[in-house]
Amino acid sequence: MKKASEFKRDVKSYLDETRPKRQRTTGYIAFFVIMLFAAYVFGRNDASSEKAMAAALPISVEPAEQGEKCELPEIHPNPSYQSSWENVLFYCNEIIDTSRRYNLEPELVSSIILLESGGDSNAISQSGAVGLMQIMSSDGLSRQLYGDYFFDRPTVSELLNPVYNIEWGVSHLAGLVEIYRDLREALYHYGPIDVGYDYADSIMSMFDALN
Is the pLDDT of residue 76 over 90? Predict the structure, then answer.
């Protein structure tokens, strides 16, 4: 019968001889576990990314049906705006319906969209304003530049939805008109403050041209 010392020596010898094989096996197992974990993590991230992208994509807005004439003029009084004006007219029904619900003129709202984004629902300015009516968001570039100043605003993904953007922008402008009881003053507070009343005057000039 082997002595304890001899048994320990045999075990040690066995462990030394099989160590490379055991390490390879352990490595394979570790690699397999890591790959499973990575697949789980990246699978979750991909799902989250897809959800985020889906939320960021604006829902489709159908143009006016054939035979349904847009109440806004097809030709803009200023020829240099015509190309962008056609983009704005794509949202004609939404502009008219939303404007009237808030007792604002569709020509006024369409003038804001024309000047702000040229009818591009995916427009994001260098200052972080988003969408058709160029509304500051609570996140994204706006948050990077201004911190929590616009904490109560919608998110970028919400504002990239053209229907939501028009709804929020029109309701916001209507609220400003209610507060200041003056359209020029309301437009001054709606637009970029650092340009003074130039923004308000430009919108009002475009609005008048459409009437």
Answer: yes
Query: What secondary structure letter does DSSP report for 135?
Result: E
At 53-68, the pLDDT tens digits run: 334 444 444 544 444 6
Q: Tokens representing 184? A: 């020029």
The alpha-helical segments, DSSP class H, found in the chain are: 4-56, 82-89, 92-101, 106-117, 140-146, 156-159, 162-180, 183-190, 198-210
pLDDT 10s digits, 143-156: 999 999 999 999 99
HSE-up of residue 184 (Cα within 13 Å, Cβ side): 7
Cα–Cα distance measured from residue 108 to residue 177, given in angstroms and rounded to the nearest whole number: 13
Helix, strand, coil shares, percent, the chain, to 5: 65, 0, 30
**pLDDT computed for residue 193 by the predictor:** 82
Q: Where are the beta strands (DSSP E) in the chain?
A: 129-130, 135-136
Long-range contacts of 80-85 (CB under 8 A, 24+ apart): 81/114, 84/114, 84/118, 84/119, 85/114, 85/119
Round to whole Å and give the CA distance between 73 and 88: 11
Distances (CA, A) of 29 to 16, 35, 78: 20, 10, 71
Residue that has been written with the tokens 């993590």 in this structure: 41
Give 5-57 pLDDT, tens digit per residue: 554 455 445 444 544 444 444 444 444 444 444 444 444 444 343 334 334 44
Dihedral sign computed on CA atoms, order 118, 124, 125, 128: positive
